[in-house]
Design goal:
The protein is α/β, with parallel strands linked by helices and about 425 residues long. It has nine helices and 19 strands.
Length: about 425
């Protein structure tokens, strides 16, 4: 079978500049020149030759794999593993530092919300613009136009400038254009997560159709392991910019989930899998009951009132302004169930101490029996401060008498439990 994509020895290096001290006023620069002119000139000379506070960062390192025509290949890995960088190299957005890529056929991509759209043009005009970029003639675009609009579900807004579209509308239109233009190779990043559940299902169905009926090739990046398993027979696992495993999707996903679980065994304060400037960092996580007792994370009951406690450390409280703390709940395979930031509830923290706790009280744990993971992220004045990539902890929920019914055969397979009140109104 013919290889439609060949990736050989691909590496990508970025130069990271470390600036010390943040913003510096002109008067400070002039003072430094006056006090130590030779030191100032020496520093500038180092900057000129690239030796002042710079570090080489290899986002990808010696990537090799092949993709056959008609395959759907999953690209998985933790945040920062190099997935999006790889797709940007494949699409030609950024060049590799070393290595070569052979791609046989027309390529379409959906990497970021609104990529390739002109904000001042309408949805109709952008369909023709994107189609032309993909190499389609006006006649070919006209023939597929109605299908594109119907699939995207934006009929009412087709003549509205896309700058007025929501992120979900951007994604729906972008995916619809890319999928209906029948490229030989379709590259799709996690951007589909912006769409609602119904549209994600439509997209997966369309990608399945593209590979099985039209024998076109798809590279699919996602954190949704169930979507990867449903669509892709083979997957590539990236870790720290390297290929850790290539093979059957089920085995690759198992390896990925084991990596995530093993990383949680390292104390949070010692973990290296994190992003952010480090002004505030998470150093520990635990769960308490409503009396303040620390709970065994393997013995938490459905419907119980619990508190998630995130211990933090801040080395410079003067920089800790406008703090927004978020948590996320995930299934064991990292499908996201919920995301909640303090700002959603109108809470932005100020004037914190060097060491303390962020606490979130959950009035009722509405999850069925099973294993779950929790993530956390913190921003300071709009910039990312700390985001442990593999989450901060895990816990096991055990079955409890959440509902009044004592039916022993009752088994709720959906992850979320709903607590409310049923009533009936009869017409006389």
């Amino acid at each position: 079978m013919t290889n439609i994509i060949t990736v050989k020895n691909i590496s990508k290096k970025y130069n990271i500049t470390h600036q010390q001290g943040g913003y510096v006023a002109l008067r400070d620069v002039m003072t430094n020149v006056a006090k130590s002119p030779f030191s100032f000139l020496k520093h500038k000379a180092k900057e000129a030759v690239g030796k002042a506070g710079k570090e080489d960062f290899w986002a990808l390192n010696d990537i090799n794999f092949e993709v056959q025509k008609g395959e759907a290949i999953g690209i998985i890995g933790a945040n920062g593993a190099g997935k999006s960088t790889l797709l940007k190299i494949l699409t030609g957005i950024t060049p590799p530092t070393t290595g070569e890529i052979t791609m046989r056929g027309k390529v379409a991509s959906l990497l970021e919300v609104g990529t390739g759209f002109h904000p001042e043009l309408t949805g109709r005009e952008n369909i023709f613009l994107n189609g032309t970029i993909l190499g389609m003639t006006k006649k070919e675009i006209n023939a597929k136009f109605n299908d594109i609009v119907q699939f995207a579900g934006i009929q009412k807004f087709i003549d509205t400038p896309v700058k007025r579209y929501s992120s979900g509308m951007h994604v729906r239109l972008g995916f619809s254009v890319a999928a209906h233009m029948e490229p030989d190779i379709l590259l799709v990043d996690e951007v589909l997560a912006v769409g609602d559940a119904e549209f994600q299902k439509k997209c997966l169905g369309k990608m399945n159709e593209v590979t099985k009926k039209s024998r076109r090739t798809i590279l699919f990046v996602s954190h949704n392991m169930s979507a990867i398993q449903n669509l892709c027979k083979r997957s590539v696992l990236l870790r720290d910019g390297r290929v850790e495993m290539i093979g059957e999707t089920e085995k690759v996903v198992d390896k990925y989930l084991n990596n995530q679980t093993n990383s949680l065994k390292t104390p949070l304060k010692d973990r290296k899998d994190r992003r952010g400037n480090g002004i505030i960092k998470f150093i520990n996580f635990h769960i308490e009951d409503e009396r303040g007792n620390v709970l065994d994370d393997q013995n938490i009951k459905s419907g119980s009132n619990i508190t998630f406690v995130f211990d933090y450390k801040c080395d410079d409280v003067s920089k800790a302004l406008n703090i927004d703390v978020g948590l996320s709940l995930h299934t064991h395979d990292f499908s996201t169930l919920s995301v909640l930031y303090s700002s959603y509830l109108g809470k932005i923290f100020q004037n914190i101490s060097p060491i303390g706790e962020f606490r979130f009280k959950l009035k009722e744990l509405m999850l069925i029996e099973g294993d779950y993971k929790i993530g956390a992220r913190i921003t300071v004045d709009g910039s990312e401060s700390d985001w442990p990539q593999n989450g901060v902890g895990s816990f096991k929920v055990n079955q409890n008498d959440f509902y009044i019914s004592k039916n022993k055969d009752f088994k709720n397979k959906a992850p979320l439990l709903l607590n409310g009140e049923w009533k009936i109104t009869t017409n006389k």
